[in-house]
Specification:
Number of helices: 7
Oligomer: single chain
Radius of gyration: 17 Å
Largest sheet: none
Number of strands: 0
Strand content: under 5%
Distance between the termini: 20 Å
Length: 128
Amino acid sequence: MQNKAAKLITQVKARDHVQPILRELHWLPVKERICFKIAITVFKCLNGLSPPYLSELLKSYLPNRSLRFMKENLLVIPTTNLKLGERAFSVGGPMIWNSLESHARKSPTMAAFNESLKTKLFKRSLNH
């Protein structure tokens, strides 16, 4: 749907490749868009901007002993036996969050986090 919408908006031929069009429109591909939305939701949860029922699903990673990455703002990724379990917010959210660069996780504002995240996802989608 996204590809068809992009082609309709730019009025290109149906057979034209969609990647340059998405780049021109500055649209994230669907997979990266999903990661973007989940990461934004995690940021809101960690900064008190979301409902408590969502925030309660996330737990900060606190190792038993002092380690270098204690200040990295990482989250615990619950174990799951099923591949389907990775789709749960309590598992997928921390997986996406922990995959972000440290400076993105430590962003002081929503705007700074949004910019850093979108830039990272755009670069990742262009490399595919």
